[in-house]
Amino acid sequence: MNKLENLRHWENLEKTDPKYTKPFTKAGGFKGTAQNPTYAIKKMTEHFGPVGLGWGMNKPEFTFINAQAGEVLVYCTLHVWYRDWE
């Protein structure tokens, strides 16, 4: 595979339509942008095909960590797979 073929998935999925995002602010001034998860699933389905056939994911694992000032940090680990039909 050449360099362009190696980046074909990246280039197709890297841009997020801003109307499917929302800003958030957390304690300590941390700011970020969250993507609508349904939008992400739609983009993956458009690119790889139906969930379970062209791509899929395992059951998410959540880790909860007590942080400062009563905040709880939640980390989600998810394994995603895809089939490359080319």
Can you tell me about this structure?
The protein is built from 3 helices and 6 strands. With 86 residues, it is an alpha+beta fold. The protein starts with a helix and ends with a strand. 1% of the residues are buried.
Question: Secondary structure elements and their pairing?
Answer:
Blueprint: H1 3-6, H2 8-13, E1 21-25, E2 31-35, H3 37-48, E3 55-57, E4 61-66, E5 72-77, E6 80-82
Antiparallel strand pairs: 1-2, 3-6, 4-5
Summarize the structure.
By secondary structure, the chain is α+β, with helices and mostly antiparallel strands.
- The fraction of residues assigned to DSSP E strands is 25-35%
What oligomeric assembly is this protein in?
A: single chain
Give the number of helices.
Answer: 3
What is the rounded distance between the termini?
11 Å
Give short descriptive properties of this protein.
6 strands, alpha+beta, single chain, two-stranded antiparallel ribbon, 26% helix
